[in-house]
Design goal:
Blueprint (H helix, E strand, L loop, with lengths): L2 E2 L18 H16 L6 H8 L13 H26 L4 H18 L1 H7 L11 H23 L8 H20 L3 E2 H4 L4 H12 L3
Antiparallel strand pairs: 1-2
Amino acid sequence: MTVSRFSLNISPMPSKKYHHGDLKNALINAGVEILAKEGIGGLSLRKVAQRAGVSHSAPYAHFPDKQSLIAAISTEGFNQLYAELDAVTSLYPYDPKKQLIEGSQAYVRFAMNNADTFKIMFSGVLEKEKEYPAFLEISHKTFERVVGIVQACQDAGILRASPSDMTAVTIWGQIHGVIALGMEGQISRTVLEHRSVQDIVAFAIEQLILS
């Protein structure tokens, strides 16, 4: 099968040098860039400090080791994703169908605009997740927001009645899978000549909607 690279223009976030009061974010951005280009094996606090333009000892004020930095990157990613989903539900408070459709597209946009962070969030490189309560809290909160949208759709007869958490996992998996295929260049070029990743996700959601 002929495949094409992701049909979206995605570039790593630009490196941000340290500015007073913004060291933590500068280190997180630097960590994202290094992980995206070199993988977990290439990440070190020394490299992060160098990329952020600060002393080698500066990162230790916020991160005792590189796992804590990965946790911070993932936590910030989920904070952003939750904010995107929250904005959608706030915009359509009485329209669960719109929440589902627009929430799915918000997830696609988040992945497109934050490709490096997105990959890290779901890479499995974060070890001992239970040691990072902020990460656990926001990742759980994000999933619960998805479950809430699904439950509202089920109550309105828009989605088939079933355990809402299982349905949420299934829908999330479908959307995430399409995005991952696109990022890895595993979607047929013949499809991408006529349809975008957003179109494919919209089609997948449309197949689930009952009315």
